[in-house]
Amino acid sequence: MSELDALLQRGDTLVVAAPLDATLTILERCSGAPPKAALIVDVASVKAPLLPFVARLAGFVPTHPLAGAEQSGPAASRDDLFIGRPWAYVPSGDPLLEGRVLQFIRAMGAEPFAVEAERHDRIVALTSHVPQMLSTVLGATLGAREEPLLSELHGPGLESMVRLARSAWPMWRPVVKANAPLIAEGLRRIAEAIDAVAANVEADDDGALEAWFEQANRFVKRLDAGRSDLRR
């Protein structure tokens, strides 16, 4: 018996915390040798590819805690990682199983959010995957400039913008592949907006630029309000 097979026979809750491609492999293994656990959850950031396992694997609920960071591994662990953060789950239609997943999420200190897989993937393409790609592109573009002072003459604004650029490609590769159309669409819309802003800057169009700032300010206030609601 392998270490994984032995692990599957321990405990009443199994959390598959691995990159998306590895998650699919583990769930396939679980389907062949059903684990002892009454509740099985994953934490991958794309949900649609996991839906086939809902019917094949008793106790499985696709979930996604929105609390990740650019760091990985045990050294980057934090005991407050999930506190007050949204934790999405795909509704099962089974009251007993749903009760288990709600109890688990709340035990982690997070706030459960029921959302269908397809809608989840559309939303996180814009709120997680596109920001990751934008941060990566910004870091790569600045890194290609032959100006050594770029790494010294900067403030916290740049540091916050490129924080996600520390993320490792092997972790993101299966996510980008699985959600590619939605990520590409989001990036193209932002590329169009960047072109428009560049034109406004060149034209010294104060009114148009102010409108961009005001729209951005309104959205950030919505984010702040959403976070406040979670803390209540």
Features:
single chain, 232 residues, mainly alpha, Rossmann fold, 6-phosphogluconate dehydrogenase C-terminal fold, 3-stranded parallel β-sheet, 3-stranded mixed β-sheet, 9% strand, elongated
Report on this model:
With 232 residues, the chain is mainly alpha-helical. The chain has two domains: 116 residues, NAD(P)-binding Rossmann-like Domain (Rossmann fold, 3-Layer(aba) Sandwich), CATH 3.40.50; 107 residues, Orthogonal Bundle (6-phosphogluconate dehydrogenase C-terminal fold), CATH 1.10.3660.10. Helices cover 56% and strands 9% of the residues. The protein contains nine helices and six strands, in the order H-E-H-E-H-E-E-E-H-E-H-H-H-H-H. The strands form two sheets. It has a three-stranded parallel sheet, with helices on both faces. Strand 2, helix 3 and strand 3 form a beta-alpha-beta unit. Helix 5 crosses helix 8.
Spatial order of strands in the largest sheet: 1-2-3
Shape: elongated
Percentage of helical residues? Answer: 55-70%
Distance from first to last alpha carbon: 47 Å
Uncertain stretches of 5 or more adjacent residues: none
What count of domains describes the coordinates? 2
Report strand %: 5-15%
CATH superfamily of the largest domain: NAD(P)-binding Rossmann-like Domain
What fold name goes in the CATH topology slot of the largest domain? Rossmann fold
**Biggest pleated-sheet summary:** 3 strands, parallel
The rounded Rg comes to 21 Å
Structural class based on helices, strands and sheet pairing: mainly alpha
Oligomer: single chain
**For the residues shown, what is the average pLDDT?**
92
